Amino acid sequence: MIFIMLCLALLGGIALAIQASVNGKLGAQVGVFKSAFLTFSVGALVTGLLVFFFDPKHELTLFDVLKWQLMGALLGVPYIVIMVLAVGKIGTAVATVAVIFGQLAMSLLIDTLGWFHNEAIAFSIPRLLAVICLGIALYFIYQSNRQTAE
């Protein structure tokens, strides 16, 4: 099961990179906010159909959960808008690795401190080294883009 979840996460990452590239081009042609609006409109339609046809019954509804848990929906907006803006300026690879770097750094904090009612996972040097390695990768990818542009 873990292998399947890792493969699905990998596919999700592939989809996000493609989405960033496509949305970056679309945003440059029709506008950042129109591109973001299209993303959320189509996403809402598809997700609504999935909920209607496939979502099993749950004990709680969106009205019953702790209200801070709803902020995840709001946090998708800056991600999409920032990616549409950034891809056109710094390229898909740099923008994507920068996002992943931010995700990894924040995820390490969330895991270590057990924020948002998640089970705490002990801080370790290998986890810190992973963040550092990704930071180094970001630097080299960014430098490669700058050299190519010159």
TrEMBL record:
User: Has UniProt tagged this entry with the keyword Transmembrane helix?
Assistant: yes
Q: Which residues cross the membrane?
A: 36-54, 75-101, 121-142
The superkingdom of the source organism is Bacteria
The species this protein was found in: Actinobacillus ureae ATCC 25976
Q: Which InterPro entries match?
A: YdcZ (IPR006750)
Q: Which GO terms describe its cellular component?
A: plasma membrane
Name under which the protein is recorded: EamA-like transporter family protein
Q: Which UniProt keywords apply?
A: Membrane, Transmembrane, Transmembrane helix
* Keyword Coiled coil part of the UniProt annotation: no
